[in-house]
Write a structure and sequence with these properties.
Elements lengths: L3 E4 L3 E3 L7 E2 L3 E5 L2 E6 L11 E4 L4 E4 L1 E6 L6 E2 L4 E2 L1 H6 L3 E6 L12 H17 L6 E3 L11 H9 L4 E5 L7 H13 L3 E4 L14 H7 L3 E2 L11 H10 L3 E5 L4 H13 L6 E4 L12 H12 L4 H7 L2 H6 L15 E5 L9 H6 L5 E7 L2 E4 L13 E4 L1
Parallel strand pairs: 1-6, 2-7, 8-11, 11-12, 13-14, 14-15, 15-16, 16-17
Antiparallel strand pairs: 1-4, 2-3, 4-5, 6-21, 7-18, 9-10, 18-19, 19-20
Length: about 400
């Protein structure tokens, strides 16, 4: 991998919600990791092979979709579409986290089958990144009969996530709670479907069931797409410390109502953002950007804070070495600007005005995967790439 310098950064968004903006204007990337950050004049440029001049545009961590439903490869049987993950790359997504490969035709529902699917998907996505996007695949769908030894085996084989509880045959807290304990013991992160029904076979999940089950993440607290009542959502916000996922394929009004309470209790660090696609709502390549816009333009959240919810907050929950601009972090980055014609003067002010920013480039592990996005409006600025 070439040693790369990114310079002339106008705004640097850290991904860290406690300190979302950094004052530096340059970084050096080597072997896929951020090696140095600071003012260009102060950075050691020895050995730099490629210089990316971003012309005063905004640089952010790559966006993390906390809720995706892939199967294998870059195909969704739910919507019969190819290359939906590549399309999300054009929306700034560099990591997607499976909430369960539930859309597989003939999905096995016995213990051996659900384990086999999780292991296969986890290993497949670890070995082959669609368009370069890092997919944390193979989320275990809970089925009756799973035992502690199964979770131990799965963890050894690379399964790191329990799919949103409620997708499989295990639905009640009485069945799910012991499995959640085993999953956490072996280092897995646990999601749980929350709210009303979403697809045939799903059930309504009230707040008390979530609390009794004790997952790590409340999936789509704003509904997926049908929301629980505001009183139920408020109970999860005020009476627990669970991570709260806001989903694009959910109830938009509930986002506004939920975020009022989240702001009141100072719980921005608990918010993560998911697309929850492919779903009945469809495939939405700009879904994560659209939720960022929604939060920043309608929910009194600063644009840099909303970006942190879709980057550093999610990376922290899933223990990923990305999502934050810092030395030693994986160099997954988005270069963006105000789109042509926007009232915003830069990407952040455009987002707060409700405009989708124009993506000028997306890098994964320091390597440029796309230039100007085919899905966002064109950015005002341009990057210039040169050899050092």
């Amino acid at each position: 991998m070439a040693k790369v310098m990114i310079k002339n950064i106008g705004t640097l968004v850290s991904g860290d919600i406690s300190n979302p903006l950094l004052k530096w204007d340059a970084m050096v990337i080597e072997k896929g990791l951020i090696q140095a950050i600071g003012q260009e004049k102060d950075l050691d440029q020895n050995g730099v092979e490629q210089v990316i001049d971003v012309g005063g545009m905004t640089v952010t961590p790559g966006l993390i979709d906390s809720h995706c439903h892939p199967v294998l490869g870059d195909f969704t049987p739910r919507q019969k579409m190819l290359d939906f993950i590549e399309s999300s790359l054009h929306g700034g997504v560099t990591t997607a986290i499976s909430a369960g490969e539930v859309h597989l035709a003939g999905r096995p529902k016995d213990v051996a089958g659900t384990k086999a699917l999780a292991i296969l998907a986890a290993k497949s996505f670890a070995n082959a990144r669609p368009a370069g996007v890092k997919v944390l695949g193979g989320s275990l769908i809970l089925e009756p009969g799973l035992q502690e030894k199964d979770f131990e085996e799965l963890a050894k084989e690379g399964v790191r996530v329990v799919a949103e509880i409620g997708l499989g045959g295990v639905k009640s807290p009485k069945e799910a709670a012991p499995m959640v304990t085993w999953a956490k013991k072996y280092g897995m992160v646990v999601m749980m479907h929350t709210g009303g029904t979403s697809i045939p076979g799903s059930t309504t999940v009230p707040a008390d069931d979530v609390i009794a089950t004790d997952p790590d993440i409340v999936s789509h607290i704003n509904g997926g797409p049908t929301a629980i009542s505001l009183a139920e959502a408020e109970k999860l916000i005020r009476k627990t410390n669970l991570i709260l996922e806001v989903a694009h394929c959910g109830n938009s009004k509930m986002i506004v109502e939920v975020m009022k309470i989240v702001k009141e209790v100072n719980a921005y660090s608990r918010i993560i953002i998911g697309n929850d696609a492919p779903s009945g709502t469809g495939v939405i390549p700009l879904g994560i950007l659209r939720v960022i816009n929604f939060l920043a333009s309608l929910c009194d959240v600063k644009a840099e804070e909303a970006i942190a919810m879709a980057t550093g907050n999610t990376a922290r929950v899933y223990r990923l070495n990305r999502g934050v601009i810092g030395i030693g972090k994986e160099a997954d980055l988005v270069i963006m600007d105000a789109p042509m014609g926007s009232v915003g003067k830069d990407a952040l002010s455009a987002i707060e005005a409700g405009d989708i920013p124009g993506i000028a480039a997306v890098l994964i592990d320091g390597q440029m995967k796309i230039g100007v996005s085919r899905n966002t409006p064109p950015p005002n600025g341009k990057i210039v790439i040169s050899k050092s």
